[in-house]
Amino acid sequence: MDTMRDRFATVTTELLDDDPRLALVLAVISAERFTGAARAHPDRVIDVGIREQLVIGVAGGLALTGLRPIAHTFAPFLIERAFEQVKLDLGHQDAGAVLVSSGASYDIAAGGRTHQAPGDVALLDTLGDWIIHVPGHPDEAEALLRHAAADGDRRVYVRLSEQTNTAPLPTQPGRFQRVRDGRAGVVLAVGPMLDAVLEATSGRDVTVLYASTIRPFDAATIHQAVARATTPALILVEPYLTGTSASPASEALADLPHRLLPLGTRPSELRHYGTWHDHVTAHGLDPAGLRERIDAFLGM
Amino acid sequence: MTASTASPGTADRPATATRVPGTYQDLLPLMSRMTGDEKHGPAATSTLDVLWVLYDRVLRVSPERPDDPERDRFLLSKGHGPMAYYAVLAAKGFVPLEWLSGFGGYDSPLGHHPDRTLVPGVEIGSGSLGHGLGLGVGTALGLRAQGLTGPAVWVLVGDAELDEGSNHEAVRYAAAAALDRLHVVVVDNASATYRRPGGLASLFAAEGWSATTVDGRDHSALHDAFTAPHPGRPQAVIARVEPKN
Lengths: 300, 245
What we know:
The complex is a heterodimer. By secondary structure, chain A is α/β, with parallel strands linked by helices. Chain A has twelve helices and twelve strands. In chain A, helix 8 (194-200) links the parallel strand 8 (186-190) and strand 9. Chain B is globular. The chains are: A alpha/beta, B alpha/beta. Chain A binds chain B through residues 23, 43-44, 46, 48-49, 51, 53-54, 56-67, 69, 84-85, 88-89, 92-94, and chain B through 69, 73, 115-117, 123-125, 128, 130-131, 133-146, 148, 165-166, 169-170, 173, 176.
């Protein structure tokens, strides 16, 4: 099976052939995957060198001329390093773009903190108007990339990861999907967290919802699921900073007495290398870690 | 300063109700509508002559066709002290005169830093320094990718603004990409905290740009620099005006 990043390269190369409005902006990272596309479309495959501020500035400028830019590098360099450019060169200009990151929270675990961005979604949330896709499988990544490329002039973030679920689900931007029905509470699994959530809650009488698009936040489905549960409790399981979706979840449930448990990566820096598997376990996001905390929260 | 230069300090013809103010002499009275002051210090007018020469004689832009794909693009990167910009836009018919007196007010489209979504003819919102050049590079690339080789892209930056590192990402890349439709005009009022030895033109020249330095109050010299050919390379014009301090 190819990775999400592999799929990004093949799909984007195809989209560049099909849609003259698309342009790709790179800062060296992944450029070796686009040599053919760059030969075919030298004016629309743009590698600016190691210049992340310029990646976003160029994306904004391309959009102002009517193109639809796709900008890509590792998540910390794409979102965190050039955050003011994301805020001003895209948002403030009302310029559309698709930002595609790879590396997710700690795919590059051995690379250390410099190559990790567990706060990227929370950071984009401060801007309010980003559509945020968190695919859980390369097939979902492909569908969401195609959706994002054709999504008018909206500002869209696609967060690619090496962590995947075994099987893809249909993508429905704006809608959370019901994967399992239960009565004792509701668990929302985001992107690559689904397999671990299903294993952690096996034999438990809980509803499991799945989101491969976390913004917009599907408040209606959350409200309906929690309102139907005998125990009005919601557990968020996100593969990035703990509590990133706690605010929209609380808002969705404002009229319901409820309890909320947000799970994700802990905010303090984990000074360990290893693999992403090690980091999943260290943050308690493996099936055992999730099961322990979900059971305790639901009193099981 | 040459005979072709009208000093903004001597402008004395008031705007009248019977005529749309559209000359250089109208600019200071138009600025007064925003500031309420009769006189303006050098900082407020540092960009005035550069803006006027561009809008009056160089840029191919029209208030009737603000979205024309073939128009030249002028990006005010520094965003600070925008009264001169708004005055020029008003004089050229982009901005209604009655907007000027509301400058900075809650419902006014004219803020202390411009917002492209609120003001006709304004290509970018700016104010945080160091964003215009990157946007200008992207604009030049986008036009080139669509076969629009006619429009020129102009970015106005301040000399102190060039301290922002983002500019230097853009400067080298623009030369490497041979963006010969890209132009930068640096209004140099010596406000950078640390002056560059050898001057700003040498900075651009060292990166492979065509670069020249002129008197930023001399309309004829500005026009010559703005229209000089620079095949295969982006062009930087350093427009020197009175030091800020």
